[in-house]
C-alpha cells in the first residue's frame, strides 16, 4: 500500500466534501440529537472498523463524534482510508437524520 501524495488526497476528497484533510489525517465531526445516538453510531463505526481491519481514532463527546482516520503503515493517507470513509458514507446513511 502506498501513501497518497497531497494532490491525490484532495482529488479523492472531492467525492467526500464533508471530510477534511488535516495534519495527515482525514477527519469529520458528526452531530447528533442525543448522546445515545452518538454511541450507536460509534458502535456502527467500530463494527465497520473490524470488518475492514482499519481502525480510526474516535472521540465521543455529549452530542458529537469526531472521526480521524489514517493508515499507520504508510504514516499518512492511503486508498484504505478512502475505502473506509466511503463505507461510512454509503452504508451508514442513517446519520443524515441527526
Plain-language structure description:
The protein is of the alpha+beta class and about 100 residues long. It has one domain (about 5-95): Transcriptional coactivator/pterin dehydratase (Gyrase A, domain 2, 2-Layer Sandwich), CATH 3.30.1360.20. It is about 40% helix and about 20% strand. It has helices spanning about 5-15, 35-50, 80-90, and strands at about 20, 25-30, 55-60, 65-70. Strands 1-2-4-3 form a four-stranded antiparallel sheet. The chain is globular, with a radius of gyration of 13 Å.
CATH-level-4 superfamily name = Transcriptional coactivator/pterin dehydratase
- Average pLDDT for all residues: 92
What would you say the CATH architecture is? 2-Layer Sandwich
CATH C-level class? Alpha Beta
Envelope shape: globular
Structural class by sheet pairing and helices: alpha+beta
Sheet with the most strands: spatial strand order: 1-2-4-3
Distance between the termini: 35 Å
**Assembly type of the shown chains?**
single chain
Helix and strand element order: HEEHEEH
From the structure above, extract its key features.
98 residues; four-stranded antiparallel β-sheet; alpha+beta; 4 strands; Gyrase A, domain 2; 21% strand; 3 helices
